[in-house]
Amino acid sequence: MNATPSEGVYVDTSVLGAYYCPEPLSEKAEDTLRKIPGPVISGLSDVEFCSLISRKRQLKELGERQANEILALFDSHVAAGILPSCLAVGRPFPQGASTSFGCR
Q1: 21, 71, 98, 104: least CB-packed within 10 angstroms?
Q2: What is the pLDDT along the chain (104 residues), one digit of tens a residue?
Q3: Could you give the number of structural domains in the chain?
Q4: Count of beta carbons in the 10 Å neighbourhood of residue 99
Q5: Nearest-CA neighbor of 11 among 43, 40, 48, 46?
């Protein structure tokens, strides 16, 4: 189910990164997300988030196991509709295609 922008508040990938990854602003991101009535993400958020996690891996800010756990949690939140897409474009790539550029 896709949401429209009028049904929720768009959450930028930078906020998602702070929420899912241990950072100085993680607590603030969590507090903010808990207060938002109906957070939504864009149709490109999956790609952007995967890129963010990949970069954190390259910079050695995350280990492989931790990165995989974060990606799995994010995917489960998207699949469960906790973070619905505000665009009706669906996933920009078929499920699992992101493995071709080393994210998952």
Answers
A1: 104
A2: 344 445 678 899 999 999 999 999 999 999 988 888 888 898 789 899 999 999 999 999 999 999 999 999 999 999 898 888 875 444 443 344 333 334 55
A3: 1
A4: 10
A5: 40
CA angle 93, 96, 102 (to 5 degrees): 95
Residue type, 62: L
Whole-model pTM: value is 0.75
How many C-beta atoms lie closer than 10 Å to residue 94's C-beta?
8
- Cα 50 to Cα 103: distance, rounded to the nearest angstrom: 6
Q: Which residue range(s) make up the domain with 62?
A: 5-94
Q: Would you list the DSSP string of the chain?
A: -PPPGGGSEE--HHHHHHHHS--TTHHHHHHHHHHSSSEEB-TTHHHHHHHHHHHHHHTTSS-HHHHHHHHHHHHHHHHTTSS-BSSTT--SS-TTGGGGGT--
CATH number at residue 11: 3.40.50.1010
